[in-house]
Amino acid sequence: xxxxxxxxxxxxxxxxxxxxxxxxxxxxxxxxxxxxxxxxxxxxxxxxxxxxxxxxxxxxxxxxxxxxxxxxxxxxxxxxxxxxxxxxxxxxxxxxxxxxxxxxxxxxxxxxxxxxxxxxxxxxxxxxxxxxxxxxxxxxxxxxxxxxxxxxxxxxxxxxxxxxxxxxxxxxxxxxxxxxxxxxxxxxxxxxxxxxxxxxxxxxxxxxxxxxxxxxxxxxxxxxxxxxxxxxxxxxxxxxxxxxxxxxxxxxxxxxxxxxxxxxxxxxxxxxxxxxxxxxxxxxxxxxxxxxxxxxxxxxxxxx
Amino acid sequence: xxxxxxxxxxxxxxxxxxxxxxxxxxxxxxxxxxxxxxxxxxxxxxxxxxxxxxxxxxxxxxxxxxxxxxxxxxxxxxxxxxxxxxxxxxxxxxxxxxxxxxxxxxxxxxxxxxxxxxxxxxxxxxxxxxxxxxxxxxxxxxxxxxxxxxxxxxxxxxxxxxxxxxxxxxxxxxxxxxxxxxxxxxxxxxxxxxxxxxxxxxxxxxxxxxxxxxxxxxxxxxxxxxxxxxxxxxxxxxxxxxxxxxxxxxxxxxxxxxxxxxxxxxx
Lengths: 304, 267
Description:
The complex is a heterodimer of chains A (304) and B (267).
Chain A: H1 3-41, E1 44-46, E2 52-56, H2 59-65, E3 66-69, E4 74-77, H3 79-111, H4 115-130, H5 133-144, H6 149-156, H7 170-194, H8 199-206, H9 211-222, H10 224-239, H11 243-249, H12 256-266, H13 270-301
Chain B: H1 2-8, H2 14-35, H3 52-59, H4 61-92, H5 101-113, H6 116-134, H7 140-164, H8 168-175, H9 180-209, H10 212-217, H11 225-235, H12 239-263
């Protein structure tokens, strides 16, 4: 490389940084930087009236799994906390599975429409995708609550006498999350299915594969990147969900997000809330890393 | 081949589930919109067509103030994040890969990866400290927070537009002795304009929809429309909330339609 070229490359890199700098500075103050403060706060002492006392402590982290029994003066497993974690993980995994069960046929359907129709079907998926999560949660609430559409309909046809109590149960949270996160599963699935070469199906049938074998051995392996992307896109926000469990689950069916809010706005145990936030962040980052590794492996192996 | 390929791609039950999925996606939203025009007080029984919930919402000073706040924050955040995103997109595309480019990319997209509740808590703590230190309690914190999480939404369409842009026009301008600034002002920017508009619109929609971060960052009396609605839902369900939802929904649909027209590939 000649000195002049070398210089040009360096100038180009410098300009790249300079142009990105304003965005980076804002993000450092209003997004990334404050995350470091949360880590720091998770190691401080709780102040009973809110906020923290600036003394080093690991009580916040211990509090995730343990509670201190003041009568027996020893630590015991915090069953209530474990129930919340278990519920969050279980509901998020089930939501992911349900959105896949509904989302895969939907994405397949859109991808197999004639090209000129596809944009319209995609637009129909995108509108709910961009619509306020609060409004959609509120909308599904209109359907499943006691005086809602579903119960009114069921009573009217005579299937039931008293309304089904769906709201304020785990089922309501599950229905709500499946409803609000469905588009997040359909879009990446569609993106991979659209590139799927339908001639592979002919080849598979010609070789006497059953429909089931074709689905399992031909279609699913090829659309795997889309399945993983969709699953991550649904699982990650489900795990940190706050609005949907709050409205549909009520106070009894808290998820991690609501539990974190409780520590900051009502429970007044900021270090515990901070530790929970960091733990949630670590789990989410772990899931994203797995995704990046699987995606890179698939890309390096190549397919099709 | 197309004919046969189409036939063979038909898996049993797929169309049924897919149509079902579309019905499930839209039925609740349509119900919500219909009941916003309900004359009756109840959210359950239909009492004829009426606009009086819209009138109520309009006459409600809290709703008016929250709408104004949502608009101020949304417009400011969309404007600022689009400027920052445009600069960053110009900095990270169409040049030889440089050291730290991936880092910049990850930082800009970070708001998409971190759970909202975690960012909300982090900003509540940090801005809390700043509020005590400076005494300033205004909307600036909400605007800064919204600008930050809107950035990736503004950045991605602008970047996509830049990457698909033809370099030859800019080369031609430079060949005709245009200065770099003239080339940027007269060639690059007009070509980039649809991407910038699209980015600004997505940023505005994202800002208008935010609940969680706003709920944690806002000071007393700084409700936006979504946090006002969340507060209402805690007390009772009235069709007034349906009316506000329907209006927000309308804004979203209009913005999205514009976004699609702007980013549509010309075939």
